[in-house]
Amino acid sequence: MQYNHWSVHTDEENICWLLFDHKKASTNILSTEALTELNDILDHITDNCKAIIFKSLKKNGFIAGANIKEFVGRDYDAALALIKLGHEVMNKIAAMKCNTISLIHGFSMGGGTELALACKYIICSDDASTKLALPEVKLGIHPGFGGSYRCIKRIGPLAAFDMMLTGRAINTRTAKKTGLVDEVTAHRQLERAAIAYASKKYVQPKPSLLNQLLNNALIRGFIASRIRKKVAHKAPKKHYPAPYKLISLWQQYYDSPQKMLTMEAQSVAELVADKTAQNLVRVYFLQEQLKSAADKKLFKPSHVHVIGGGIMGGDIAAWCALKGFQVSVQDQDPAILAKTIQRAYGLFKKRLKSERLTRNAMDRLTADHKGYGVEHADIIIEAIFENSDIKKELYQRIEPRMKKDAILVTNTSSIPLETLSTCLKKPGRLVGLHFFNPVALMPLVEIVHGEQSDKKTLAKVSAFALHIDKLPLAVKSSPGFLVNRILMPYLLEAVVMYAEGIPAEAIDKAALDFGMPMGPIELADTVGLDVCLSVAQNLSQRYATAVPAQLEHMVKTGHLGKKNGKGFYPYKNGKPQKDKTASYKSCENLQQRLILMLLNEATACLRDQVVENAELLDAGVIFGTGFAPFRGGPIQYIHDTGKQELQHSMDNLQTVFGERFTQDNGWNLV
Amino acid sequence: MSKDKTVYIVDGSRTPYLKARGKPGNFTAGDLAVAAGKPLLMRHHFALEAISEVILGCVMPGADEANIGRVAALKLGIPESVPAWTVQRNCASGMQAVDCAFRNIRSGLSDIVLAGGVESMSHAPVLYNDMMVNWLSHFMMSKTVAQKLKTITRLRPSHFKPVIALIKGLSDPIVGLSMGQTAENIAQRFNISRQQMDEFAVQSHQRLAFAIDNHHLDEVETIYDNHGHFYDQDDGLRRDSNEKALANLRPVFDKKFGLVTAGNSAQITDGACWILLASAQAVKKHKLPVLAKISDSEWAGLDPAVMGMGPAHAMAPLLQRNQLTVNDVDYWEINEAFAAQVLGCRAAWMDEDYCKHQLGLDSSLGEIPADKLNVDGGGVSLGHPVGSSGARIILHLAKTLERNNAAKGIASLCIGGGQGGAMLIEREAN
Question: CA-CA distances (angstroms) from residue A520 to A425, A604, B261?
Answer without folding.
Answer: 42, 20, 65
